[in-house]
Amino acid sequence: MRSIMKSAIWISVVLLVTFTLGARESAAQEVRTWADSSGRFKLPATLIEVKDGTVFLKRTDGQTVKVPLDRLSPSDQQYLRGLENPFEMVAEDSKTTLQPSASRPSSTPPQTVSGSADNSNEATTGLAVWGNPPEVRWTGVKELDEGFGDQQWTYQPVENTLSFEPKPASVPEKKNFFEGMRRLQVNPVNGTCVAGYTWTFSTPEHVSRISLVDLKTGQSRNSELVTCNMCPLAVLQDGETVLMQGTGREREGYETGDQLQLWKFNGTKIARSGIWIPFPSEKKAFGKTVNAQVSQAFPIANNRIILLADNGHLACFDLGTLSPQWHFQLSQNRAITMTVDHQQMFVLNERRLLHVDPLTGDVKGSLTLEGEPRMGWTKIRLNPTGERMLISYVNHLRVIDLVDGKTLDEYATAGGAPLSPNGLGYPADDYALLNNHLLFHIPSRITLCDYKDAASIETVGGLAFVGILSDRGGRIVPLKLPHPEAETMLKQAVDDPSVFLMYPGVQVSLDVSDVPAAYRAEAESGLREAIGTAGYRFAKSANLQIKAAVTGPVQEAVSYIARGAYIANKYTTTVEIRFNGEKVWSRSSSNIPGVLMTKRGQSIQEKLDELGRSPNVGFFKSIPLPKLLQKPTSNGSGNQQNALMVSKFTMQGIVDSK
């Protein structure tokens, strides 16, 4: 492609290292087989050095790898303790030669790529391979174990807010009427973000640029135009290097979504690395095999990055060697997210939620979503306290408790159209940001505010980062959602019964005819109590009806992590709210939980047999019926509901209208 074959900027990093050998030089230079603490991974290599608890090894193919000392096998740790540390590293200041880019990458063969020798800030080191990327080989690479890991679900919530107070930043105005801010990516670990801009219409050549913002100070660095078609995927952990992705179409001759590149600033110009394709020849499209495109990227510790491809291939790569560390092929319906510190990852694969160590690929827990919902257009996000997960799929929105996996709330639109296909945010416990502009109040089902004229909105750690771009200037603004005027509007709406279908004092009837006779009395008693808790008034006949049902039993195979598969008798318990015969709200549960708790000495099969004797009738009593439920609109197109107010982002602030 001409984007690869034409003029490029290459970055040379010169690192001069002098070694002083001690009494055990020969022992350190010998090739020996190193193993990790589990014994599953072995590597023939020579020792380079041990520094700050990290062991640096040179493989027989000449590539350098590193591993935490405490992750090595006991025999390897004992071996290292027997050495007298024969290596002493003396490094001169890294000298980086940067050549500005005037147009596309050159056809000149790449040499070396930008990097820093400072491991303390997780800088990307040893990236000369970006100039000549190795072939990606998956043979022998660890696969994430979805079903049989080390332990059952034991996740304990961690604070999921930012560790700093972000400041707004100014960025340049539009360079042209047709230029747009296409992506805004925040790195919450080092407090940086990058905004990407492209201009592809009414211009002789496609051009892109970036703004790199230090959110802790509000200072930004803004690049000149670069002839290419690329947008940022992530700011790496050094806070200086931006991982870019092609966004052009193949027939145009510019960078495409399967191609990644590193960008660094040289004044206002950009120095660019070679192109790397992490998922080559992995998809079938129009009868031919093509490269998969990257859809998400999360930089993590130890100079590694998590990449998710559009074919569901999830992988962790070492950025210094471009070698995969672990991987897994997810299904068509999948989603991933991370805690703000990027130390814990969640993977939703169809109906199974995995808690994963992103560095090692170890599965720390697994649970199955209640009700086994039909998935599609799936997205997941964590709340600021790390206790809840928001899941968007098809026309549903669900909130689950991350401690026990139970559903706390669920909402579905009429018509079945996707609720949030183009983006999902979780700016506060009771709010979802649908398609990155519609603020939805989950408890009341009110579409509160439609935020307009933002070039991009990214929610991270309980804040929304709003990108604004105009011909008079640009801004990156961190703010809390809802903003004060929206909170006031919600309070006014809550006090107005005409807004709601369900509210305290509304009359409802009850129908338990679809519950088997043996459980009908208990179901009615439980639902009457739930109706009272919600504040409704019971009536024998009403336009609003609470309808209960129990289906099953059906024999199904269920599995629990590290415990294998079992057969269980499954009942499904359902509660619906119907208005004039049409379903407007529903919740369901099963007698087989996602997280199984056994008694002392009780086997899993014995517990499943016990649960399989009857449906979960207690669900009728414990179900939290909505205290407020907004009246349904006649428009069944998912997210196109009418919001109570519209708020526009301007360079002067938010302008509200009702």
How many strand elements? 49
If strands are numbered along the chain, what order do they take across the biggest sheet? 34-35-36-37-48-49
Structural class: mainly beta
Tell me roughly what share of residues is in helical segments. Answer: under 10%
Biggest sheet: strands, sense, closure?
A: 6 strands, mixed
Low-confidence stretches: 1-28, 84-126, 635-640
- Average of pLDDT: 82
Strand residues, percent: 35-45%
First-residue to last-residue Cα separation = 50 Å
A few lines on this structure:
The protein is mainly β. The chain is built from seven helices and 49 strands.
Describe this structure in words.
The chain is mainly beta. The strands form 13 sheets. The chain has a six-stranded mixed sheet with strand order 34-35-36-37-48-49, covered by helices on one side. A five-stranded mixed sheet has the order 9-25-24-23-22, with no helix packed on it. The protein is built from seven helices and 49 strands. β34 (424-428) and β35 form a beta hairpin. It is 9% helix and 42% strand. The radius of gyration is 28 Å and the shape is globular. The longest helix is centred in the C-terminal third of the chain and has 18 residues, at 517-534.
